[in-house]
Amino acid sequence: MKDGDLLGQAKAVLERNDNGNWTQAALDMYPNQWFWDSCFIAIGLSHYKPERAIRELRSICAGQWDNGMIPNEVFHHDHQSGSRLWRSEVSPQAPPTIKTSGITQPPLLAEAVWRIGERLTAPKRNKLFEEFYPKLVAYHTWLYTERNPHHEGLVVLLHPWETGTDDTPPWITELHTHWTPFWISLIGAVHADKLIDLIRQDLQSASIEQRMSTMDALRLYNIVVRMRRKKYQTNLILKHGLFAIEDLFFNSILIRNNQILEEIAKTIRRQLPRELHVQMTRAALALDDLWDEQSEQYYSQNFVTDEKLRVPTIAALMPLYSRAITHERAKKLVHLLKNRKEFWTTYPVPSVPLSSTHFREIHYWSGPVWLNTNWLLADGLRHYGYDDIAQSITTSSLALVEKSGFREYFSPLDGSGAGATNFSWTAALIIDMLAHNEPAAVLEAKK
Ligand code: GLC
Known about the structure:
It contains 19 helices and 10 strands. It is mainly α. Strands 1-2-3 form a 3-stranded antiparallel β-sheet. Helix 2 (about 35-45) packs parallel to helix 5 (about 110-120), helix 5 runs antiparallel to helix 6 (about 120-145) and helix 16 (about 370-385) packs antiparallel against helix 17. The mean pLDDT is about 95. The structure holds alpha-D-glucopyranose (GLC).
């Protein structure tokens, strides 16, 4: 397929999923607006419809809470699935006129605002930055106050959905060591989960081996219910022993977005609030606490016990995107990435390394390749001077979509597609990748 055809098809996917001011993540499986999805979607749209890209971000920010939190889901219509589960109205901090979830997702807003800004004239860019600066400051401040109770610089997450990598093995492993309520155990004991499988919306368009088990999904719903009882107040949730993790993936993304927020502030000649600036500086250093000398890898950490969750996933490579690690460490991560027994599969980069006992070829966040993680890694690799590896990842991402369409995720072994079809962020990031794609000949000439 020619690049032009792929571009046209990617735009058509976004067109189909467009709701005017916001984009559905995927028509068949995720009818709502999601936070980090919208950031990726805006990055794609910025190439040809920058005004529409700005509206995408405005509509997700319409759900921003009074305390600064940006929720992972915004429900633009009351009847949307999920709004009854979350019941955001239980919190006085939630917006009064729009329903949302009560948790957040990887903080890529600064990245999205910056990328749109790059495509605008200076006056328009400054206007955009002025508009989003207060929202960004409020959001990052919330993360570094409410979600950083010990002021150590690493933000704590309270639900696996906040990582964006919903059933990533370290979180699910922790979840299994956690208390399971009686009613869920009972459902498992009488195999009633098989009946629930029959009515699950996601299983209407994907097979169970591609999706989270119903038992795990129920455990995740149960955490929401318990958080809702505490009105989504972090201090109360932490006091009642719900599980809490300093997540490597999320903190790496946040650290990079702190840097971009600083750039945005500089561009419009603003001074970040002092305390926020202190926390942001601390965060970049605190990432080092997640390094494990023995295995020479980064891991997430249990917030309560300080124990590292030594279950490797793609998060191990995400400090490359943070830009906060030394070149020496980056080299170690690149070595890990290029290991054919770990992450360098036929189609890189799998969400869980091949050598892991948790690896499952087409199972959600337990093995498949996702285009957003490829995009984040390619960005980090370019920063550390590994342009050729970044380009291989981009070329392979394009090949995956040419082979299997705009799927949610792909097998790292044979490139077959899985999960949702016509997935918005896959389409959006293909648009961005095509814009930066360097044909082999150009790369050769640059050497
Ligand atoms: C899945 C992904 C999550 C994404 C959502 C909507 O749940 O795990 O990261 O935001 O779908 O696309």
